[in-house]
Amino acid sequence: MQGLQRRVWARIWEVGHEDPRRVIHSLKVGTSLTLVSLLYLMEPLFKGIGENSIWAVMTVVVVLEFTAGATLCKGLNRGLGTLLAGSLAYLIQYVANETSQVARAIFVGAIVFMIGAAATYMRFIPYIKKNYDYGVVIFLLTFNLITVSSYRVDNVLKIAHERFYTIAIGCGICLFMSLLIFPNWSGEALHNCTIYKLEGLAKSIEACVNEYFDAKLAERKDETSEDPIYKGYKAVLDSKSTDETLAFHASWEPRHSRYCYIYPWQQYVKLGTVLRHFGYTVVALHGCLRTEIQTPLAVRLLFKDPCIRLAGEVSKVLMELASSIRDRRNCSPEILSDHLHEALQDLNTALKSQPRLFLGAETNPVNNRNQQGSSASLQTVKTDTSALAEWRSKRASELPPKEGGEMRKMLRPQLSKIAITSLEFSEALPIAAFASLLVETVARLDLVIEEVEELGRIARFKEFNLGDEIPITCEKPRVDVSSNHLPTHGIE
User: Fold this and answer.
1) How does pLDDT run across 206-252, given as a tens digit for each residue?
2) Rg for the chain, CA atoms, rounded
3) Distance (Å, rounded) from C-alpha 80 to C-alpha 86?
4) Got the DSSP string for 161-221?
5) Is the CB of residue 265 less than 8 Å from the CB of residue 251?
6) What separation in angstroms does the CA of 168 have from each of 141, 174, 221?
7) 149 or 242: which carries more pLDDT confidence?
8) Distance of alpha carbon 242 from its chain centroid, rounded?
9) Taxonomically, which superkingdom (predicted)?
């Protein structure tokens, strides 16, 4: 029992330690609920507002979100939906009072049907669904509650007023807590999320290449997902929904820059899409470290220096892009420096210097001693494969059916592996694929640079100065997985 308690407390501490903003947000919600509860607990307030004060409590629970943008979005949607529903319900009740009791019932039922169907259909409109879906739901709820209850209750106007006042009080408390008390901005989260993704990709590429040329590569094939390389690009691959949500909520927040009135949050989403495509190449590069067939270390070392140099240059460019976004300045005009092109040329020269690994046995002087070089190699493959197949058939025939089937399943991968590793070019294929993917990262790097430059142009980043330094460290931000928000630093 004590062990369970320790694990629970350790988990609670870990959640708060990962992101202290979670603790602050919890305290803000508790304080907000206490404030709206005073409408019930204090006699003068309860007499002035009445039993409808419970709507203020419900509003705080529903509206107060982790970031200011999300709270603004929900609060304004709830307030606008309530105001429109109350006004329309009052108009319907005013018209219905001029008719008889039976006609009034028919009229109210018909209006409820038409408004309900029309409002529900509007929720399918993409623009309405994206921006005002919650407001339409609140409109439907409030309109039906007031309209239907007005058939039996005479003071419907008083009910509508009290409900609107209590919801306004709840929204006001939420906005006060969200905007003025340790605010968490969605725009800041999106900004720093983009920086973290660029830095994570830079470190993943560099670590991936360094590990590929490590002598202990074969011993690391069974590592878990705690691999630091995996952690570097995982945030990029899983960022689509987070980026879109943060960009949408950021559009509701006050402007974050004195240079432009509408900050280009959607450009961050476009940049995130390009980074995900870049991340797919890093995933394939990481996959080369976990393949069953690996190039021998002696062959890999022939290309170690140019590959490590090229990866370092790519990482340097990504870190410069992250630095430019962090400082809100344009990229260096020489971001694609001559060093990157020289590293590409060195890798190309290294590959051409070993033609016997990639062009076949005819260019190998040792193999040319035997005129049957290629056919002898294929004959060796055939001999090895035939011998294993013959032994497998003989062994399986001596075993019972059940054990024979298990033996066939066990031998099948061994047969495939022997056939593959006996191919003439099998040693060169993995390093060729690895080098090709490394060059592909350079090709995709141009697209990333274009999107960052477009972001700087639209957001009016300051001009690059020669004294600007490029940071080489990457601080992992605290990630709030439950609410799909990333922590932030300052926004200008």
Assistant:
1) 888 888 887 666 555 555 556 778 888 888 888 888 889 999 998 88
2) 33
3) 10
4) HHHHHHHHHHHHHHHHHHHHSS---HHHHHHHHHHHHHHHHHHHHHHHHHHHT-TTGGGGT
5) yes
6) 16, 10, 59
7) 242
8) 5
9) Eukaryota
If we measure between CA atoms, which residue out of 321, 335, 328 comes closest to residue 461? 328
362 close to 373: Cβ distance less than 8 angstroms? yes
Instruction: Return phi, psi of residue 321, to 5°.
Output: -65, -40
CATH of the domain spanning 186-217+225-357+426-459, picked from 3.30.70, 3.30.1490, 4.10.320, 1.20.58: 1.20.58
Distance, CA of 151 to CA of 160 (rounded, Å): 14
Sign of the CA dihedral with 366 first, then 367, 368, and 371 last: positive
Q: 462 forms bridges with which residues in the sheet?
A: 329
Residues 6+ apart with CB under 8 A from 258: 492
Q: Quick one: which of 30, 28, 37, 43 has its CA closest to 166?
A: 37
Q: Rounded CA gap, 470 and 322, in Å? A: 9
DSSP alpha helix (H) spans, 251-303: 265-287, 297-300
> Containing H/E element for 410?
helix 401-421
Report helix, strand and coil shares of the chain as percent, to nearest 5.
75, 0, 25
Name which of 188, 204, 189 is nearest 236 in CA terms.
Answer: 204
Judge contact between 199 and 321, C-beta under 8 A.
no
Distance between CA atoms of 202 and 322, rounded to whole angstroms? 10
CA dist 408 and 396 (Å) reads 7
> With 0-12 CB in 10 A as exposed, 13-18 as middle and 19+ as buried, what is 171?
buried
Tokens standing for residue 235: 């945030």
Residue in 268, 287, 154, 134 with CA at minimum distance from that of residue 212: 287
Domain residue spans in the chain? 1-180, 186-217+225-357+426-459
What would the pLDDT profile of 60-115 be if each residue is shown by its tens digit? 988 899 999 899 998 889 888 988 988 888 888 878 777 777 888 888 889 899 99
Q: CA 374 to CA 214: how far, in whole Å?
A: 32
SS3 104: helix
Euclidean distance between CA atoms 59 and 252, whole angstroms: 19
Contact 340, 449 (CB under 8 A): no
What is the distance between the alpha carbons of residues 35 and 469, in angstroms, rounded to a whole number? Answer: 48
Q: Which helix (H) or strand (E) holds 328?
A: none
- Beta carbons of 56 and 36 less than 8 angstroms apart: yes
Name the residue with tokens 């339409």.
136
